[in-house]
Specification:
This protein is mainly alpha-helical and 293 residues long. The protein is built from eleven helices and two strands.
Length: 293
Amino acid sequence: MSSIRQRNGLAAFEKELAEKEQRAQDEREKPIRAQVQRNAELQAQIEETEREIARQELMKQDSPELAKRCKKFNLKRHGLSSQTPVGELREMIRRAFDESNRQIEASGFRLEHPAYGETIYRIMANNPELDWLSTETWLTVFEYAQSVGYFDRAVTKIEQPKAPEQEKPRTLEDIHREIDNLDSSTRDGALNARRLAVEGTGLAWRHVFSEWKNQLAHDFHYQISDNEAQACIDYCKRNGLGIDEKSLNLCRQHVLGLKDKSERLASEVEQFDWAHATFEESQAMKRRMREEL
């Protein structure tokens, strides 16, 4: 009893020391964490200020940023001339605008009309030198304006639901690692160890069975059905066999009737009636055995 109390007392003392050291570490790191937080807040303020400047600049005439990003208006680029009717130009602008909207919404945004149209047409009016006949211009303007928060509530980013993460299938190594970490001296530990052992055996069987099915497909060009697979498992159980390569090869021969060249000859030799065969028949069989085995 005294040794148990000593161990418990030592464990409590070690725990107290660890907690004290952790508190001291937290105190030492507190100013650093506070500074990191202030730096992050300052950086966020700087970035928001830059976006606000960019938004204000978009409201002015002839934005230098858009002039740098977009092509200038050029009739010849579109096969037009100064004689092209204004109505036709307006129709081309409308088609380019509609196509840009279609592509924007297909990429995961919802455009709130008429607010979005009014907002982006205001940019168009302030930048008449840009090539508004091109869908590319509308998309470039949208991308830049959206990046600086210009559209406010006129544009909503639609968040796609995340696909559930696929659980990584457990391997034999995972199961063995869990068994090694169990305390099998306790009742629950022993039960869990047995459960994991059964699971590991099943996993090993599935792996061997899967490899065997692939071998059938490769060597015999045969795809085993679910019913045939169950018949093979029943054959192993009925004959007290494990699910291993040797047992499955017996299933291949006796359940599926698939034999390679040497196995077919061995079967013929076993069934050959040596006592009643003629001399020529016996010699022919012996010759085949020498050639094929």
